[in-house]
Design a protein that fits this description.
GO terms for molecular function: isomerase activity. This protein is α/β, with parallel strands linked by helices and about 800 residues long. The protein is about 40% helix and about 10% strand. Helix 3 packs across helix 9, helix 15 packs across helix 20 and helix 19 runs parallel beside helix 23.
Length: about 800
């Protein structure tokens, strides 16, 4: 349907203006102020109940979401241009990069809906408009707006007909120079980069879509924010806000703890058919009054008020997969919070302050809350907890993620271990050795602090090993019974983490073959990971803050690995550790030998083969089989047994053959049964390393001959590197051709037969289909995928 924003005569005028002005270099240097007046932010947000708002929601917004938001969301949006909300479109662009690992001083924060509330405030922070802010006429709106000019540029200069775009003319690297032209710079941009209209490096949008957007822009780009929640939803919000804002010291401390762990999640009410999502925020105002947001860098920074209130704020941005962490609220969840935090008998005598050295250390700040309650709170929804350090402040970043292996399994210590008085006493005694980098806030000198934190971690591990040596004397109780079994029903008990170079995924279940490494997390470890990488991490921090955070995570990763190794025979522990850290630097080697490897009690697990690690993995698989999710099993696919066998052949790729494939390949297979829904798969490339202790020279640690793949049913990850689309009948040929892929040329031939490349004329129809299937299959957790990592091959 065409938007009736303009009368017919105006529509003709828009088309004429487009033809006359589009791409014409002779107009470079126009004095826009003289032509169209001085710029000033416009009031574009109209009430959701108006017809013009409904036309925006029905016709314009879907085009922006499915063609623009797929590249422009989160901190890694090019030019900080977040098109995922009306307010973000109006905010515009900024030439400064959020992901900048070399800055000496922390940058000013530019978080949408937090650091400024109006377009005028964003202009004061250096954001420039992509919509026309001068005279509101069709001519001005289409010629003095960056967004309109970018669309016109693309229509005038479609993608070349090449299958693979010339890398000399196109840069798809994540750290590429970003032009981010203002309207005053658009003439020069159009001359220098005539093929760089939007969408960049992807096919132009359809003529109907382009007309829809151009007519909307010509009419002044009227928009509306998200619709307000229903009265039934608001009643549930009031109920939860009442629960989270009790007056007693215990209630205030519990609510602070819940907030600092859920502030990055998308909360929803699970009993609603079409739930909406909320963020939990700190406010200066109590429930019943409008939210007055407390905007601090971190959730535990000093709020500057005597009393903090925890409030629900509607998520106003399009849900994108790379930041979406749905967290269900219901009566059972509220009862669980009561059971964990209010039924036990304990006293909160005073509220902790917000001094950085206290607030950044949860072992100290929340010492009055039972450790078992805190631990249970986190592992009840362990996927969400761990997902926070992947989808939270870091929606992208090699430096943050090259601290983990490409695929590993995660287990948890049985909660009963955290409910022993000696354990609580131990945590209290060791609080000074469990300090975290966030206490230094966002400007840090890395070297001296790393030495200090290494020493404190060494002291903690020596004390922990001494406690364990006493607790597990002779090893008789050191068995797989120490691993949480999910209480027989919770599928958060087993997780698999995949790293995709500079992004990562957390999935329930033990996916793939036995991994190289595994983690066993206890209370103090999972708590510190959260406060290191989620609550305490500042994406705007200086290079020292980001570097020391990454270096500290080395300690926590090794601690989790050491917990797993403790179940193996003593000699095997040393052999495994040596294989995991081949050629590691001298300081790390000494740390490993002297601090994390001092636990010397024998395991209580009985082994019968010369491959104890394999035995241990099989024991854990058996122990946790009833609670381990099989959502990603290939056997779930609605395909014939022969087709699943062909898929399993693909799953055997190893070595340099596997290296040729992208981090993530999303595959759509059309079943032979035409009544069945298309089946989704993900081919994950797992990169092997000698060790992952190198901060910058990851390439030198790669073991290409040990690379492999994991093929799963369903979508896994947010950043596809390639798309395949094929008929089920083509699977046998695909499986055979994959065996012959030994060179880049072989890989490109494979793509010629099965890929939907970024240059394909079918790209957008395929994209729509893929995202729709994902939404239909998983309506709560699905979000739009991100195309910033699509390869050009």
């Amino acid at each position: 349907m065409r938007l009736p924003f303009l009368k017919h005569s105006n529509r003709v005028a828009v088309i004429l203006f487009t033809l006359i002005f589009s791409g014409c270099a002779v107009y470079a240097g126009f004095n826009y102020d003289q032509l169209y007046g001085l710029p000033e932010p416009k009031d574009r947000i109209v009430p959701t109940t108006t017809p013009i708002a409904q036309r925006y929601l029905t016709d314009v917004k879907p085009v922006i979401e499915n063609r623009c938001v797929v590249c422009h969301a989160c901190y890694d949006a090019p030019c900080q241009l977040k098109l995922s909300s009306a307010e973000g479109i109006d905010r515009g662009a900024n030439k400064e990069k959020v992901y900048e690992g070399t800055r000496l001083l922390a940058a000013n924060t530019t978080r949408m809906f937090i650091d400024a509330q109006t377009t005028a405030q964003w202009r004061d922070k250096g954001f420039t408009p992509v919509l026309n802010e001068r005279e509101q006429s069709p001519e001005a709106n289409t010629q003095a707006g960056v967004m309109a000019r970018m669309l016109q540029l693309k229509q005038a200069h479609p993608l070349p007909s090449d299958t693979v775009l010339n890398p000399d003319n196109w840069d798809f690297s994540l750290d590429r120079d970003q032009q981010c032209p203002t309207i005053e710079e658009m003439d020069q941009y159009e001359q220098a980069y005539p093929k760089w209209g939007m969408p960049y490096g992807l096919p132009q949008i359809s003529q109907n879509e382009n007309d829809t957007l151009m007519e909307w822009l010509a009419a002044g780009a009227p928009m509306t924010s998200v619709e307000p929640p229903s009265s039934a939803t608001l009643a549930k919000v009031r109920e939860w806000e009442t629960f989270l804002n009790g007056d007693s010291l215990k209630e205030q401390l519990v609510s602070r703890y819940i907030y600092e762990h859920l502030f990055v999640s998308h909360l929803y009410f699970s009993d609603e058919e079409k739930p909406v999502f909320f963020k939990l925020v700190r406010s200066k105002t109590a429930p019943g009054s409008p939210v007055d947001l407390i905007a601090t860098r971190r959730p535990f920074d000093d709020p500057g008020v005597d009393r903090v209130y925890y409030r629900f704020e509607l998520v106003r941005e399009t849900i994108v997969d790379k930041t979406h962490m749905p967290y269900a609220l219901n009566k059972s969840k509220m009862a669980r919070y009561d059971e964990l935090f209010f039924e036990p008998s304990y006293v909160v005598s005073t509220l902790p302050g917000y001094e950085p050295d206290l607030a950044a250390n949860p072992l100290m700040a929340f010492s009055q809350l039972p450790a078992n309650a805190r631990y249970r709170f986190m592992i009840d929804n362990a996927q969400n907890t761990i997902m926070g350090f992947i989808k939270g402040p870091v929606c992208r970043g090699q430096l943050a993620l090259n601290v983990i292996n490409d695929r590993f399994w995660v287990f948890f210590v049985a909660p009963e271990m955290a409910n022993v008085p000696s354990v609580n006493t131990f945590y209290a005694e060791q609080a000074h050795n469990l300090r975290l980098p966030a206490e230094k806030e966002s400007n840090t000198l890395p070297l001296t602090n790393w030495i200090s934190y290494a020493k404190q971690q060494g002291r903690f591990l020596r004390a922990k090993n001494e406690l364990l040596n006493q607790t597990f004397e002779n090893g008789e109780h050191l068995t797989t019974d120490l691993i949480w079994d999910g209480d027989g029903s919770n599928d958060n008990a087993t997780l698999t983490i995949f790293r995709h170079f500079d992004s990562a995924t957390v999935a329930k279940g033990l996916i793939g073959e036995h991994p190289k490494t595994a983690w066993v997390l206890d209370y103090s470890l999972i708590e510190r990971i959260h406060y290191l990488l989620v609550a305490g991490f500042d994406v705007y921090g200086n290079f020292g803050h980001q570097l020391i955070t990454r270096m500290y995570m080395d300690f926590l990763r090794m601690e989790g690995e050491s917990n797993f190794l403790s179940l193996l025979p003593t000699e095997t522990r040393r052999q495994e550790l040596a294989s995991w850290y081949q050629d590691s630097n001298q300081h790390l080697s000494l740390f490993i030998q002297g601090d994390i490897n001092a636990f010397n009690q024998p395991t209580g697990v009985q082994f019968n083969t010369d491959n104890p690690k394999k035995e241990l993995f099989n024991m854990l698989l058996d122990r946790l089989n009833d609670v381990s999710s099989n959502r990603f099993a290939l056997s779930n696919a609605q395909l014939t047994p022969a087709s699943i066998a062909a898929l399993d052949t693909i799953n055997q790729l190893k070595g340099k053959q596997a290296t040729l494939f992208p981090e993530l390949t999303f595959i759509v297979i059309e079943p032979n049964d035409r009544t069945a829904q298309p089946q989704l798969f993900t081919l994950v490339r797992n990169s092997a390393h000698k060790n992952i202790s190198s901060l910058f020279d990851e390439e030198s640690n790669r073991l290409y001959e040990q690379d492999d793949v994991t093929l799963v049913s369903g979508l896994l990850g947010s950043y596809p590197g390639a798309f395949w689309h094929l008929q089920e009948s083509q699977l046998p040929k695909l499986a055979e051709q994959i065996k012959t892929v030994n060179t880049e040329q072989d890989y490109r031939k494979l793509l010629d037969n099965y890929a939907v490349r970024r240059t394909s004329s079918d790209f957008w129809s395929f994209s729509d289909k893929l995202n729709q299937i994902y939404r239909d299959s998983y309506p709560i957790e699905a979000g739009l995928l991100d195309y910033n990592r699509l390869e050009n091959r």
